[in-house]
């Protein structure tokens, strides 16, 4: 177990395959701002390790969580972590893009869902984003989450009409899965300005996070057009 510096993001790896855990550790150790503080082969072992880390005040900021594991799977472990350690962000990293698994994982508190073929640089960036509280989903994952969500009679939430045209632009792009940097580039704004827009629109629409905003954006797609 390595010691995390104050400026680095402490990460724990949970996967039933040792070769996967070792490979992830090797790749992430190359990132100066990411430190692996432990690894576990199933959810039960992960929770036991978290108890130990909590005693020495070294809880990870992010847990990379596999889904299908023996003893305790990723869904059960994610739910337990969200309940016991709300400061920890769980980022799913799995082979399976199964609709039910995605829905179950996000329902119990996962902040993101990536597949194991995600390039290492994108995985590192996803860890950084999730550590800051942002949601992070791989290509095609958000679309699967939205399957069956759309309805011809979507109720427009209170506060929607109070959004500025620019805030609606931002909401629309959140619905595509874009992060703040990508939204900033698309709208020719600074990331700080985008962050302010996101904060305001979440507040006006009484949404908990970007995942809820993305789902709402998909439901209201016909009402969200880019500001010319």
Low-confidence stretches: 1-5, 148-152
User: Using DSSP, what is the number of strands?
Assistant: 6
Taken as a percent bin, the fraction of beta residues is 5-15%
SSE order: EHEHEHEHEHEHHHHH
Distance between the termini: 53 Å
How many individual helices? 10
- Helix/strand-derived class? alpha/beta
Strand order of the largest sheet: 2-1-3-4-5-6
Taking the sheet with the most strands, its summary is: 6 strands, parallel
Mean pLDDT: 85
Mass-distribution shape: globular
The gyration radius over C-alpha positions equals: 18 Å
Percent helix among the residues? 40-55%
Short account of what is shown:
The chain has 228 residues and is α/β, with parallel strands linked by helices. It is built from ten helices and six strands, in the order βαβαβαβαβαβααααα.
Describe this structure as you would to a colleague.
The protein has 228 residues and is of the alpha/beta class. Helices cover 46% and strands 13% of the residues. It is built from ten helices and six strands. The chain has helices at residues 18-28, 43-55, 74-84, 99-107, 120-131, 141-146, 165-174, 180-187, 191-205, 210-219; strands at 9-14, 34-40, 62-65, 89-94, 112-115, 136-137. Strands 2-1-3-4-5-6 form a six-stranded parallel beta sheet, with helices on both faces. The chain starts with 8 loop residues before the first strand and ends in a 9-residue tail after the last helix.
